[in-house]
Write a structure and sequence with these properties.
Largest sheet of chain A: 7 strands, mixed
Oligomer: heterodimer
Distance between the termini of chain B: 43 Å
Protein name (chain B): (2Fe-2S)-binding protein
Shape of chain A: globular
Bound molecules: FE2/S2 (inorganic) cluster
Radius of gyration of chain B: 15 Å
Protein name (chain A): FAD-dependent oxidoreductase
Order of helices and strands of chain A: EHEHEEEEEEHEHEHEEEEEEHEEEHHH
InterPro entries (chain B): 2Fe-2S-bd_N, 2Fe-2S_ferredoxin-like_sf
Distance between the termini of chain A: 27 Å
Shape of chain B: globular
Helix content of chain A: 25-40%
Structural class of chain A: alpha/beta
Pfam family, one (chain A): Pyr_redox_2
Strand content of chain B: 25-35%
Keywords (chain B): Oxidoreductase
Radius of gyration of chain A: 21 Å
Chain lengths: 362, 107
């Protein structure tokens, strides 16, 4: 298969990039390992915060629908259930259709592989019944399945509170939100108030010591001060934050540098969202953990840069578009967390001085 | 338990199918992954770890952690959180490693 642009990952950043390239007449192929478009956005029934200014407020799955619908009229070929497998010697990308692996050769590649949740280990954390907070949301909003009867939630980010409410709405009793620090890590007061209104107990200065059960979780032991409290629960949802998914970049031999706030080791890129490999661009959480707004905007920037490099967009126009998109990212990121924006800028400056390069030559 | 009427998304579960877990028929819906359908039927333990024989089940539901591997229609190591159910699917817990290289290779 041949195409102008191959997009790896069909979440919000990938969809936004596909629109930029597709609407300017480039042939686009988009692959994703899952069975539907929209990435994690598709199962988010909460309102999305921090969207770029041109978007009205909406829920995650509504935004996914909007991004998908805007591709309809353009030459975008979508291959779901098609994971990236590796790289052929001639530079084409190996993709699996579940039975065979075949090559896609593209003039440009945009990698928007998103983020994965982190685990927080405690004794027996691998026991069935322990899952990431996102997994619990997936069961409820993608698969329409109640993940358990009584849940303990470990961690208290805005996302964890969203999911706690969503679990409660489908009949899961929330036995408690366990937070290691002295206050909730969530920043959104509306969400915190919802938790309080729902009478969900919050345990600060506490952590899960161990879970117990015969083949699946039946009890959760929570350390609080000098005391260990036993909860009877069959579900533990772990809110460990997110880290960028980077395997594809390793395989494509992109250089990396470390940015704590953006999620640790992430592929390097310049202000065009172009990686150290000339034909490879990136966007979304793969370019650093951030808010929905930046996820979309970085995807758009990557799409614009590809259009410029393939000659369907003038350099002047591309530059001014990128300028204004970066201004929006700055507004979104510095409103929430000054360090995030500053680290993104540092990361871009570091582009010329890669820390980890050619590390995977075999 | 299946969510028949989702508080925000409404009714989404159509197309009931039957899958077999350890020979036992279970009801599922085409809109679900294998892992989710099992959980809806009260099955949480999907297999056992190779060395310590510890129970394993769904963890990430994103195809990342491989904790949900099972044998599906005779195929070993299927990530059940990523694969949708199909009627008459036969699902068996993951007990140890598949014989990838084969006895004949001296392994
Ligand atoms: S639960 Fe992690 S890969 Fe399926």
């Amino acid at each position: 298969m041949e195409t102008d642009v191959l997009i790896i990952g069909a979440g919000p950043a990938g969809l936004a990039a596909a629109f930029e390239a597709g609407s300017r007449g480039l042939d686009v192929v988009m692959i994703d390992e899952s069975s539907r478009l929209g990435g994690q956005l598709s199962q988010q029934t909460q309102m999305v915060s921090m969207l770029p200014s041109q978007y009205p407020p909406m829920k995650g799955f509504e935004l996914a629908k909007l991004l998908i619908n805007q591709l309809h009229d353009f030459p975008v070929k979508i291959l779901l259930n098609h994971p990236f497998i590796g790289l052929y010697q001639d530079g084409s990308i190996g993709v699996s259709d579940g039975k065979n692996v075949f090559p896609i050769s593209a003039k440009k590649v945009i990698v928007t592989t998103g983020a994965a949740e982190r685990a927080i280990p405690f004794l027996k954390w691998t026991m069935p019944g322990v899952m990431t907070i996102g997994a619990a949301q997936t069961l409820v909003n993608r698969d329409f399945v109640v993940p358990g009867k009584k849940a303990v939630i470990f961690g208290s980010s805005d996302f964890a509170l969203d999911v706690a409410i969503q679990l409660k709405q489908v009949g899961v009793e929330i036995e408690g939100i366990i937070e290691e620090s002295t206050k909730l890590t969530a920043q959104n007061m509306d969400k915190i108030n919802l938790i309080k209104q729902a009478s969900i107990p919050i345990y600060l200065n506490s952590f899960i010591k161990e879970v117990g059960g015969n083949g699946q979780v039946e009890e959760v032991y929570v350390q609080q001060d000098q005391e260990v409290k036993t909860f009877h629960a069959d579900l533990v949802c772990v809110d460990g934050g997110r880290k960028p998914i980077t395997e594809v970049f390793y395989q494509l031999d992109c250089s990396f540098s470390y940015q704590e706030k953006l999620g640790g080791w992430i592929p390097q890129y310049n202000e065009r969202l172009q990686s150290s490999q000339e034909g490879v661009y990136l966007g979304g959480n793969a370019a650093g953990i951030s808010f929905h707004g930046s996820i979309l905007l970085t995807g758009i920037i990557a799409g614009i840069s590809v259009c410029e490099d393939l000659g369907v967009l003038e350099a002047d126009e591309a530059n001014s578009l990128r300028d204004s998109l970066f201004k929006e990212i700055k507004i979104i990121e510095s409103k929430q967390d000054d360090h995030l924006w500053l680290e993104r800028m540092t990361h871009i400056e570091n582009f010329l001085h890669p820390k980890l390069k050619n590390q995977f030559i075999s | 338990m299946h969510i028949k009427n989702h508080p925000i998304l409404g009714e989404r579960l159509h197309d009931p199918v039957t899958i077999y877990f350890n020979g036992k028929p279970l009801q599922a819906y085409k809109q679900q992954t294998i892992a989710a359908a099992l959980i809806a039927n009260g099955v949480k333990k999907f297999g056992e770890s190779r060395k310590l024989m510890q129970a394993r089940g769904l963890f990430c539901s994103r195809g990342r952690c491989c904790s949900c591997y099972m044998t599906v229609n005779g195929e070993d190591h299927v990530k059940t959180c990523m694969k949708m159910v199909e009627d008459e699917m036969v699902v068996i817990p993951n007990i140890g490693d598949p014989d990838v290289r084969g006895d004949s290779h001296g392994n």
